[in-house]
Amino acid sequence: MKYNIGLSIYLLTAIFQGCDKPQEKKEIMDKARDFHSYAIPSEARVKHLNWDVSVDFDNQTIAGTADWEIEKTPNAQAIHFDTRYLTIKRVTDQAGDDLDHTLAEDQGYMGSDLKISLKENTTRVIIEYATQAVAPALQWLNPTQTLGKNAPFLFTQSQAILARSWIPCQDSPGIRFTYNAQVKVPDGLMAVMSAENPREKMAGGKYVFNMPQPIPSYLMALAVGDFEFGEVGPRTAIYAEKGMLEKALWEFTDMENMLIAAEELYGPYAWDRYDLIVLPPSFPFGGMENPRITFATPTVVAGDRSLTSLVAHELAHSWSGNVVTNSNWNDFWLNEGFTVYFERRIMEALYGADYAEMLAALGFNDLKNQVDELGAESPDTHLQLNLKDRDPDEGMTDIAYEKGYFFLREIEGRVGREKFDQFLRNYFELYAFKPMDTEMFLEYLNKELGIPSTISAPSPNDWVFGPGIPMMEFKPSSERFARVRTQAEQFSLNGEVDETQAENWTTVEWLEFLHLIPDSLNADQINILDSKFELSQSGNSEIFFAWMKKLIRSEHDQCLDRLGKFLTSVGRRKFILPLFEELVAKEKYSEWALETYKIARSNYHSVTYNSVDALFEEKGLAIS
Ligand code: BES
Ligand code: ZN
Question: Based on CB atoms within 10 Å of each CB, which residue in 47, 221, 308, 604 is the most buried?
Answer without folding.
Answer: 221
